[in-house]
Amino acid sequence: MTLDIQNVTKNFPGPRQGFFGRGEGFTALDNVSLSIRKGASFGLVGESGSGKTTLTRCILRLETLSAGNVLFDGVDIHKLTPLEMRRLRSRLQIVFQDPYASLDPRMTIHDIVAEPLVIHGDVVNLNARQRTERVLELLLQVGLRPEHLFRYPHEFSGGQRQRIGIARALAVGPEFLILDEPTSALDVSVQADVLNLLHRLQEELDLTYFFISHDLGVIRYICDDVAVIYRGKLVEQGPVAEIFDHPKSDYTRMLLDAMPDPDPDRSPFRRKAAV
Ligand SMILES: Nc1ncnc2c1ncn2[C@@H]1O[C@H](COP(=O)(O)OP(=O)(O)OP(=O)(O)O)[C@@H](O)[C@H]1O
Ligand SMILES: [Mg+2]
């Protein structure tokens, strides 16, 4: 499975002005191209408002494109029928930034994690008992416990909630995960635990990650390749080590300079091998 983003541009129309016409529009993505190969962990880094979430919404077809293509295994996502799109969505899941807002407070953990199994019942054909078994398996996989099954989101910490979000994203056995700032709402100590979990899951389940963050330390810890986005444009991309050691653009250099220089022996973000 490969994801190819080819020359994607996204313009948002400006506000309505009178009966005719609109104010000036806004270009959130400007001719963005990148390619994520199977098994990779591809990072996207950029400051707030640079277009990161808009790009994930374009990949998931939650936005129409103004120009360009998004190809999944060579197939143009924006040309799929609704049924084909739903099938594809079982292979392509997302973990959201805010584990407080993304879990329905009225649903038990069981129902939250089982929901995608119901939605994609034509792909993963499980009866109610098998679904519960699958949910239990997923909870253990993300470091939660069987007794958590019938509790509600408010009974969990931020880190635990993000584990629930991850379990939900993994439920239907996707190949590809989009992680949109999955740890930035969490305390630093909890962040490291969730990053470790994501790193372990990627290896265990042979997942491909598109990992979005404004934090270069997190990207360095998790990713093999990285693209740097600034005001909707990619300013550079390449292997993480290369971009970190030999940044080509002033913007990347500025991001690197702004990064705290953590004690290498203590930082959880230092190197994959260190944890
Ligand atoms: N539906 C919309 N209509 C108009 N403008 C939008 C819309 N959605 C996003 N934008 C604008 O597009 C730009 C990029 O937004 P986006 O949410 O992609 O940024 P981001 O990089 O994810 O930021 P953050 O790090 O804060 O999450 C912003 O200036 C935003 O205001
Ligand atoms: Mg965002």
From TrEMBL:
<dbReference type="InterPro" id="IPR017871">
    <property type="entry name" value="ABC_transporter-like_CS"/>
</dbReference>
<dbReference type="InterPro" id="IPR003439">
    <property type="entry name" value="ABC_transporter-like_ATP-bd"/>
</dbReference>
<protein>
    <submittedName>
        <fullName>ATP-binding cassette domain-containing protein</fullName>
    </submittedName>
</protein>
<keyword id="KW-0813">Transport</keyword>
<dbReference type="InterPro" id="IPR050319">
    <property type="entry name" value="ABC_transp_ATP-bind"/>
</dbReference>
<dbReference type="InterPro" id="IPR027417">
    <property type="entry name" value="P-loop_NTPase"/>
</dbReference>
<feature type="domain" description="ABC transporter">
    <location>
        <begin position="3"/>
        <end position="256"/>
    </location>
</feature>
<keyword id="KW-0067">ATP-binding</keyword>
<dbReference type="Pfam" id="PF00005">
    <property type="entry name" value="ABC_tran"/>
</dbReference>
<dbReference type="GO" id="GO:0005524">
    <property type="term" value="F:ATP binding"/>
</dbReference>
<dbReference type="InterPro" id="IPR013563">
    <property type="entry name" value="Oligopep_ABC_C"/>
</dbReference>
<comment type="similarity">
    <text>Belongs to the ABC transporter superfamily.</text>
</comment>
<keyword id="KW-0547">Nucleotide-binding</keyword>
<dbReference type="InterPro" id="IPR003593">
    <property type="entry name" value="AAA+_ATPase"/>
</dbReference>
<dbReference type="Pfam" id="PF08352">
    <property type="entry name" value="oligo_HPY"/>
</dbReference>
